Amino acid sequence: SALMFVDVKSLEECFNLCTGLEKLQIVTAPNASYTLFNLGALCRDCSSLVDLDLTYLDTSHVTDFADLCSGCSSLHHAPKIDTTSGRNFLRAFHECDLYEVPQYYMPAAIDVERMFSINHNVTTGALSLYNQIKDNVGIRGQECFDECGDNTDTGLADLAQIPYSWGGNLPPEG
Question: pLDDT of the chain along its 174 residues, tens only?
Fold first, then answer.
C-alpha cells in the first residue's frame, strides 16, 4: 500500500513492474506548480494491484494514458480519472480483470487500440463506450474490446453489437 503526493509533469512508468504493489493512492500535491500530462505505463504489469485510487489526482490535462494499467491482472475496477484531454489510450487496461468498462468521457481520444482487450469478466459498458467514441475524428480502435466480456452473457451481448475490427463479434458488412 502506498500514498504519493505529486507535483510533476509525468508519472510515466513510475510503478512499472511493481508486482507486489496491492494498493496505491496518488494525489496532486497542494499548490502544485506543474501540470500532469503523462500517465503512460504508470502501473503496467503490477499483477497484484487491486486498488488504484486516482480520485484526487488532477488528470484533466493528461494526454497519454497508454499502458496505464496494462497487465494488472488483479484489478477489477478501473480508477476514476478525468479523460477529457486524453488522446492515447493504447492498451490502457489490456489484460486486467475488470468487471465493467468505465464510462469515461473521451472526446479527444485517437488511439484506443486494445484498450480493454483480454478482460474476460466484463459484464457491462463496452457497447456504451464504443458508441461514445466510434465517431471521434481519426480514431484507431483495432481490437479495443477483443476478448472483453467473453466469459459473461451480458458481455457477449455487447460484443455482438461491436464491429469485428474493434474486437467485437459483429461481422463486417458485405
Answer: 777 788 889 999 999 999 999 999 999 998 889 999 999 999 999 999 999 999 999 999 999 999 999 999 999 999 999 999 999 999 999 999 999 999 999 999 999 999 999 999 999 999 999 999 999 999 999 999 999 999 999 999 999 999 999 999 988 776
Give the C-alpha distances (Å, rounded to integers) separating 130 from 43, 79, 125, 136, 168: 24, 19, 9, 10, 10
The residue with cell 491482472 is: 73
129 C-beta neighbours (distance < 10 Å), count = 24
pTM: 0.95
User: In the chain, which ranges are E strands?
Assistant: 2-6, 23-28, 51-53
Rounded distance, CA 174 to CA 171, Å?
9
